[in-house]
Automatic annotation (TrEMBL):
This is TRAP transporter large permease protein. Part of the tripartite ATP-independent periplasmic (TRAP) transport system. GO terms for molecular function: transmembrane transporter activity. Keywords: Cell inner membrane, Cell membrane, Membrane, Transmembrane, Transmembrane helix, Transport.
Length: 425
């Protein structure tokens, strides 16, 4: 009965559109009260979930991304991407995707990518003659590359949950992220060619060189982060702090587009964003503790294994479950609640933890663009000033492409494990 109330309250909260963090808190508290467990357990488990050293890197990476975004990074990356692919049919759509691939290595979050890139690209694409629904769809779809290509906030969460090195997690996402971006660019080109979408004139190799020169300081940030982690010179938290200092210096003194008077506001905004994520982590940890105490994860694993122990089918079942969950639940909450039990199931059939972690994160990133709770869909539809329905229709080809990449990564482990084995043995 107590577990039924837990799930009913949780589902009702999601159905009513209540924020996931609050829904997790209310449903967990309802369970504790009905089960006769002292409510003091809630803050204890919240603190235990947040008291993980590697999670301190999340505020640092959020701050670094905000500083770089306010310091002129977005326009420079878009200019560089446009100089490379803008001359191809559907060039602004391709630029949108390429910019997301480059920009993702700085923010680490899909929503930040969708808002930053979308704020520039969606109005620009509409002005150039692209349909508004296509402009919003390609922006929302490409924003999911951000949390796959390092750095990545979801990868940090997974590292904290599983004990897998965050550096190895970052490397594991690089190849799938690039593959995902290239596949979406192919899809964008095919659609643009069939519908005769516009393209720009080739601006010459000189523009490529100039655009790269403008963006090189921004692009170097990803190298700084990865080198710091792989060299052993810095922990993820220390790397995030170094990245924030680097972002401040580049934005204020090299690009000179970040007025120092804006820094306090950026600090406050970053702190609010980080606090929201960590609160979600805390509430989700309480919810996850309840599930473990009720042996729900074991029941899931036993149920699946009683049905089949075939690795091919288990991977398919895990992907279907995560795709379904991603339609209704925020990524970080889904990871904290489901990752550990599904990892146990994956290991039971011989799936490498690093491989599983990679396709699990990739799966839930796709959920950011699926209705009814696809956050990136709402962000991009809002920028395009469209209702959600036409954007959902327009994004379907990109969703299909991303799911095909997901299946490829799921069933071909070297796509996730090869780079970490070479660079971080």
């Amino acid at each position: 009965m107590d577990v039924a109330v837990l799930f009913l309250t949780f589902v009702a909260g999601l159905a009513l559109g209540i924020p996931v963090a609050i829904t997790l808190a209310v449903s967990s508290l309802a369970y504790l009260l009905l089960a006769g467990i002292p409510p003091v357990v809630m803050p204890q488990k919240m603190y235990a979930g947040m008291d993980v050293f590697v999670l301190l890197s999340i505020p640092g990476f959020i701050l670094a991304g905000n500083l770089m975004n306010q310091g002129g990074i977005t326009t420079r990356i878009i200019r560089f991407a446009n100089s490379l692919v803008g001359w191809i049919r559907g060039g602004l759509g391709l630029t949108n995707i390429a910019a997301s691939m480059l920009f993702g290595g700085i923010t680490g979050t899909a929503v930040a990518d969708a808002a930053s890139i979308g704020g520039v690209m969606i109005p620009g694409m509409k002005k150039a003659g692209y349909p508004a629904d296509f402009s919003a769809a390609v922006t929302a779809a490409s924003s999911t590359v951000g949390p796959i290509i390092p750095p990545s906030v979801p990868m940090i969460i997974v590292g904290a949950l599983s004990g897998i090195s965050v550096g190895r997690m970052f490397l594991a996402g690089a190849v799938p992220g690039i593959l995902m971006g290239v596949a979406m660019m192919i899809t964008c080109f095919v659609i643009s060619a069939r519908r005769n979408y516009p393209r720009q004139d080739w601006q010459g190799a000189g523009e490529v060189v100039r655009a790269f020169g403008g963006a090189v300081w921004a692009l170097a940030m990803t190298f700084l982060i990865i080198y710091g982690l792989l060299s052993g010179l810095a922990t993820p938290t220390e790397t995030a702090v170094v990245a924030s200092v680097y972002a401040l210096l580049v934005g204020a003194f090299i690009y000179r587009e970040l007025p120092l008077r804006k820094v306090p506001t950026i600090l406050v905004d970053s702190a609010v964003s980080a606090a929201g994520i960590l609160a979600l982590v805390g509430f989700a940890n309480v919810f996850g503790w309840i599930l473990v105490s009720e042996r729900i994860p074991q029941a899931i694993a036993d149920g699946v294994l009683s049905f089949t122990d075939n690795r091919f089918l288990v991977i398919l079942i895990i992907n279907l479950l995560l795709l379904f969950v991603g339609m209704f639940m925020e990524t970080i909450a889904a990871l904290i609640i489901l990752f550990v039990p599904l990892l146990s199931l994956a290991q039971a059939v011989g799936i490498d933890p690093l491989h599983f972690a990679t396709f699990a994160v990739l799966n839930l990133m796709i959920g950011l663009t699926t209705p009814p709770v696809g956050v990136c869909l709402f962000v991009c539809a809002g920028i395009a000033r469209l209702p959600l329905a036409p954007v959902v229709v327009a994004i379907l080809p990109f969703l299909l492409t991303n799911i095909l990449v997901l299946l490829l990564v799921s069933y071909f482990p070297p796509l996730a494990t090869w780079l970490p084995s070479v660079l971080a043995p």
